[in-house]
Design a protein that fits this description.
With 281 residues, the chain is α+β, with helices and mostly antiparallel strands. Among the domains are: 134 residues, TATA-Binding Protein, CATH 3.30.310; 47 residues. It is built from ten helices and five strands. It has a five-stranded antiparallel sheet. β4 and β5 form a beta hairpin. α2 packs across α3.
Length: 281
């Protein structure tokens, strides 16, 4: 039998090129990125990952996210304050102990802090409690003159933040022209006083009813002050909820004024008296 010719290199089948994956649409890309983040969060071997702002912007450019949106998201993340979220029955029935509001406005952090400080001290009768690079806190100012001013309420605003335990502002620059402002007000002291007042009414009604029972008064009659104390105590404690709504509205309205540029600047006289440790009404 004749030898069969050996196949030459020209007869070797050419490799089939791999198919190019189809490009992803925006919605699909967002799902892929979200799923990848989930997988990374569940991977114990990934370790701590830290990126600089420039690196984050570079990553965003790779996936088609504009730098201005990334800077906005970074500013919002940096302005985040660890405020515990209340989920108990007290908060659900009587109202929260904290209120917050945030917005992106035009202005640098220094200019915004100056206007907020002027407003808090002159319009809400607050004083500076603490001052940090990106956060400022105020507390109620005491004194009979201030209490009389709040009682008279000549401005008609009601001083809805004046009785808060603390009002704080966090301001982070988004870009050279814009900043994100977060306002927080702690109303824990106000709620505690309402709950204590309500509890006192309940206790007073119970004591009165007990005395009437000891004196031999009919049970139905003795139960009246107990019931009255329960009702009065409940409504006194519930009166905190409208205060929460008013404080929330005050924060939103303050951001409205800040956004429209309606907050007054500190006058030269106020700046001089403030630096000298004096109070200017």
């Amino acid at each position: 039998m004749a030898d069969q010719p050996k196949p030459t290199s020209d007869s070797t089948p050419a490799p089939v090129p791999a198919a190019t994956p189809a490009p992803l649409e925006r919605s699909a890309l967002e799902r892929v990125l979200a799923r990848a983040a989930e997988l990374q969060a569940g991977d114990a071997d990934t370790g701590d990952l830290t990126l600089t702002e420039a690196q984050i912007i570079d990553v965003g450019n790779e996936v088609g996210i504009p730098a201005k949106h990334l800077r906005q998201a970074l500013a919002e993340e940096r302005s985040r304050v660890a405020v515990p979220v209340e989920r108990g029955r007290v908060a659900a029935i009587f109202g929260s102990a904290t209120v917050s509001a945030s917005r992106t406005v035009t202005g640098t952090p220094a200019a915004i802090f100056e206007r907020l400080d002027t407003w808090m001290q002159k319009e809400e009768s607050l004083q500076v409690k603490r001052r940090f690079a990106d956060r400022m806190a105020w507390e109620p100012r005491g004194g009979m003159a201030i209490e009389f001013q709040r009682l008279m309420n000549l401005s008609g605003r009601g001083y809805r933040l004046a009785r808060a335990e603390e009002v704080a502002a966090t301001v982070i620059a988004v870009d050279p022209e814009r900043s994100i402002v977060r306002l927080d007000a702690s109303l824990a002291n106000v709620r505690s006083s309402r709950l204590i007042g309500g509890g006192a009414m309940v206790a007073g009604g119970g004591v009165t009813g007990g005395i009437l029972v000891v004196l031999g008064v009919m049970t139905a009659v003795a139960a009246l002050p107990v019931a009255a104390g329960l009702v009065a105590g409940y409504f006194i404690a519930r009166s905190h909820a409208p205060h929460v709504r008013a404080a929330q509205l005050a924060l939103e309205q303050l951001l409205d004024r800040l956004e429209r540029g309606e907050l007054p600047r500190q006058s030269l006289l106020s700046a001089i008296t403030s630096s000298a440790g004096l109070r200017w009404p």
